[in-house]
Amino acid sequence: MKFCDGCGNPVAAKQKETANLSQGVAAQSGVQDNKVIFMLAYLGILFFLPLISCPDSKEGRFHANQGLLLLITAVAGRIIMGIFSLLLPWRLWMIVTLLLTVWGLGMLALAIIGMINAYKNEQKPLPVIGKISIIK
Asked: What share of the chain is helix, strand, coil (3-state, %, to 5)?
């Protein structure tokens, strides 16, 4: 049957429209289902979760890359601060403690920014470090 008996509209066109609509809803629902996993990617070693749960997702690779960049930056900064604290006299421990606190707050701020972007389904790179691409 090419036309509907009740309204006279072509049946094939309606089926295509319904199929396209259902595919769009399914794709959007996939992103919604993985939103929490994308947010967890910014919590240190959990950066790999989007790569495991949705390996073909462009959004998943983006958030995994951002989480990995954040982890590498946080660890590298801690190592550099640790070496710096060994080179300074012990009387300057307050300066090193202050620098470590500021560094930690900066990394926390970047993680929160990344989580907010993941929650909003946006692919905005993190400030300062976000333009680097490790996971493609």
From this structure: 75, 0, 25
